[in-house]
Write a structure and sequence with these properties.
Elements lengths: L1 E4 L5 H9 L5 E4 L3 H8 L10 H11 L2 E3 L7 E4 L15 H13 L4 E5 L7 H12 L8 E5 L9 H7 L2 E5 L2 H11 L7 E4 L1 H31 L4 H8 L22 H8 L5 H11 L1 H16 L7 E4 L14 H11 L7 E3 L11 E2 L2 H6 L3 E4 L4 H4 L9 E4 L10 E2 L1
Parallel strand pairs: 1-2, 1-4, 2-3, 4-5, 5-6, 7-8, 9-10, 9-12, 10-11, 12-13, 13-14
Antiparallel strand pairs: 6-7
Helix pairs in contact: 1-3, 4-5, 8-10, 8-11, 10-11, 12-13
Length: 407
């Protein structure tokens, strides 16, 4: 049996995928409400194919509980935020989960850390906890790192088809865990050391963050001198060795917006390009706010309550708001005492999470003069005609209406 600890955006799909492919799984989470929803036969977030996968897992006998189980394999999939000041990984949740596992696990059990961590985190934080509790690593307990590699909006496909990395102290232990993931993963699964596995996951997301920062910085330069950044990118990408990404209002989610900071925190004197790239990305929400201010002056708009932000999630067609650029913009506006004035709408967010949130597209558009497109949901792409007559700031390059402002 596999006990998966943490049933969030990564832990739940992992548990469901394993259960639906013949692995006996018990999912554990401290959140009683979340566990109650799952035991009532409902999923806790929206994702293409997740409900069908959930149904398959239920048929296979998956169980959900708030209690840790006595078994020989544990997979820890809990949050790993970073300290906003030091930029170092906050391993608190991982350490707490490992301690609770050690309270009940039999000798010889394997603890798999699936949460994304900075290089050396398991050495610095997990091994000392195991040893302090009186366990000998490699004899009483085996440690493995198996970082996830999926993206909201395409989770199910990527879990099945993406390559995976397994880091272990001993190759035989790594191969044992590899076999569990191979029950569903059709991609290549590489077994390496724990520290290499830690580093590769962080480097993958750092590579993407640095490339996004280049596109964002290019957008700022082009906006300053009234050039079409998208036309420039399109032409540059015709070169066989150039592949510039698309700029946007910031980066969100719990990977690209967080993981690169781990390297900055651990290697502050070395990770200079990464540091500047992350600052560029983190500065985009404020840059968009400045664009809104300039557009309002140019268009003669004076009522900020007639400004509408379309999109609360961090990317299109998901309900994931983690590190959302829109939320970052609202935080910044709140510091200037105007965060509760703008209208906000997102078809994927049906609970009240911010002031002046509207739940109907037509009602939202009727209440605003300036629409800021922050997320490219399919809904708005299919309703561009409803934006006629509005002042539009398009941060996602999805609107071809005449007179639209773009980054």
């Amino acid at each position: 049996m596999v006990n998966i600890i943490g049933l969030g955006y990564i832990g739940l799909p992992t548990a469901l995928m394993m259960a639906s492919h013949g692995i006996e799984v018990v999912g554990t989470d401290f959140n009683k409400e979340l566990v109650g929803i799952l035991n009532a036969g409902k999923t806790t977030f929206k994702e293409d194919g997740l409900d069908e996968l959930f149904a398959d897992a239920l048929k296979a006998g998956i169980k959900f509980t708030t209690e840790y189980q006595v078994t020989d394999i544990y997979i820890v999939s809990v949050p790993t935020p970073y300290d906003k000041f030091s930029k170092k990984v906050d391993a608190t949740y991982v350490v707490k989960a490992v301690k609770q596992i050690l309270d009940i696990c039999p000798k010889g059990a394997t603890v798999v850390i699936e949460s994304t961590v900075s290089p050396g985190t398991i050495d610095k934080y997990v091994r000392p906890v195991v040893e302090t509790c009186g366990f000998k690593i490699g004899k009483d307990i085996n440690l493995v790192h198996a970082p996830e590699r999926i993206i909201p909006g395409n989770m199910i496909y990527e879990m099945l088809h993406n390559n995976r990395t397994i880091g272990a102290d001993v190759k035989e232990v790594g191969e044992k865990i590899k076999a569990i993931y191979a029950s569903f993963c059709q991609g290549e699964i590489v077994v390496t050391s724990i520290r290499i596995a830690e580093m590769t996951k962080v480097v993958e997301n750092t590579f993407r963050a640095v490339n996004i920062a280049f596109a964002n910085e290019l957008a700022k330069i082009c906006y300053h001198d009234d050039m079409d950044v998208y036309e420039i990118i399109r032409i540059c990408n015709m070169h066989p060795r150039v592949n510039i990404l698309q700029p946007g209002p910031g980066i969100g989610g719990h990977c690209i917006s967080v993981d690169p900071w781990f390297l900055v925190g651990d290697y502050p004197s070395l990770a200079k390009v990464i540091d500047e790239s992350m600052k560029t990305n983190d500065g985009m929400p404020d840059f968009v706010l400045n664009c809104i201010y300039e557009i309002m002056k140019k268009e003669g708009l004076i009522d900020i309550s007639r400004v509408g932000l379309y999109g609360l999630t961090y990317k299109e067609n998901v309900d994931d708001m983690r590190e959302s650029p829109t939320l970052q913009m609202l935080e910044s506006m709140e510091r200037h005492l105007c965060g509760n004035l703008v209208k906000v709408y997102d078809p994927f967010i049906t609970k009240n999470v911010v002031p002046n949130q509207i739940y109907d597209l037509d009602e939202f558009l009727d209440s605003v003069d300036l629409v800021v497109l922050l997320v490219g949901h399919d809904e708005i792409k299919a309703n561009m005609d409803k934006l006629e007559g509005k002042v539009i700031l398009d941060t996602r390059h999805i609107c071809e209406n005449e007179g639209v402002y773009r980054l």
